[in-house]
From TrEMBL:
It comes from Halomonas urumqiensis. Pfam families: ABC_tran. Gene3D superfamilies: P-loop containing nucleotide triphosphate hydrolases (3.40.50.300). This is Multidrug ABC transporter ATP-binding protein. InterPro entries: AAA+_ATPase, ABC_transporter-like_ATP-bd, ABC_transporter-like_CS, ABC_transporter_ATP-binding, P-loop_NTPase. One of its GO terms (molecular function) is ATP hydrolysis activity. It comes from the Bacteria.
């Protein structure tokens, strides 16, 4: 466990009774104070991994340390540091917002602290709804109540399992703002999502899980820089059978049966790099002119995190 890690997952495996292997030798450090997004298709193992870390499911092999506490042998100390926001509310329809959040604090043996409950409810724009029964709330407000319940016992770590599944875009952006504010207050956030833009918008680091295997963990910016690519496609007047040697120093590939040349370059976003890109493209066009290669049209595109994710998943199928 590194000194900066608040959670250390060590060689975790989970095999269910029917023989299904849900997690395969997963190792992962979550850094204190970061937003970590766990990406993966449905059935990839996201919820199982969270459930094991939170102590709700026992692993078949490996272990989890939460702030140095083994989450099996020292379950209470590990679990009280964690807040878990599940995907769905349980059947508490006729309980008020205040009562359900206060009750969650009591579950962890914490003394009553109305001032803390008020701070949580105000931070989530729930204060005006504190006397409302859950059955009267909108879907978005119910989702906020789930977060309030998870924060009631003052955890250092907050797990959000698909936090914005089924909510509209405007509410999703509100939720992102809430999560950022929580991180700014010192809470470590781990979220699972299949919304690529959610990870792209919020995460400091991204992990990709596929069929129970953690196939990649990377800083978001480094991931975009390393795997995100820009493409310039040149549609040629006359097809080529291969790329001429005089153009070999450019990253070029033939496409469309030789009717197009594709030039790939890094999807970096700094002004200085964009200036370099412009110079490189100008050099490429000059070299094409010198080689007598003429084009009738060109267009550029930049890969999104979604395309990166899809390509990663395909690679490992």
């Amino acid at each position: 466990m590194s000194e900066h890690a608040v959670i250390a997952v060590e060689h975790l495996g989970k095999v269910y009774s029917g023989g299904f292997e849900a997690l395969k030798d997963v190792s992962l450090d979550i850094r204190r104070g970061e937003i970590f997004a766990l990406l993966g298709p449905n059935g990839a193992g996201k919820t199982t991994l969270i459930s094991v870390i939170c102590g709700l499911v026992n692993p078949t092999s490996g272990r989890v340390l939460v702030d140095g506490h083994d989450n099996v042998s020292d379950f209470r100390a590990a679990r009280e540091r964690i807040g878990l926001v599940p995907q769905e509310l349980t059947n508490e329809a006729f309980v008020t917002v205040w009562d359900t959040v206060s009750f969650s604090r009591g579950l962890f043996g914490k003394p009553k602290d109305p001032a803390h409950i008020e701070r949580v409810l105000r931070s989530l724009s729930l204060w005006e709804k504190r006397r409302n029964r859950l059955i009267t709330l909108s879907g978005g407000m119910k989702r906020r109540v789930l977060i309030a319940k998870a924060l009631a016992h003052e955890p250092e770590i907050l797990f959000l399992d698909e936090p914005t599944a089924g909510v509209d875009v405007e509410l999703r952006r509100d939720m992102w703002e809430v999560v950022r504010e929580l991180r700014n207050s010192g809470v470590t956030i781990i979220l699972t999502t299949h919304y690529i833009e959610e990870a792209e918008e919020m995460a400091d680091r991204i992990g990709v899980i596929r069929r129970g295997e953690l196939v990649l963990v990377e800083e978001k910016r480094a991931l975009m820089r390393k795997l995100g690519r820009k493409e310039l496609t040149l549609h040629l007047h006359s097809p080529l059978s291969d790329v001429p040697d005089t153009l070999a120093h450019h990253d070029l590939a033939l496409a469309d049966d030789g009717h197009a040349l594709v030039y790939r370059y890094d999807a970096s976003r700094t002004d200085a790099d964009e200036d370099d890109d412009t110079a490189n493209i100008a050099g490429l066009l000059a070299d094409l002119e010198a080689a007598g290669i003429h084009f009738k049209d060109l267009h550029t595109r930049q890969s999104s995190l979604e395309e990166i994710f899809v390509s990663l998943v395909k690679e490992r199928q």
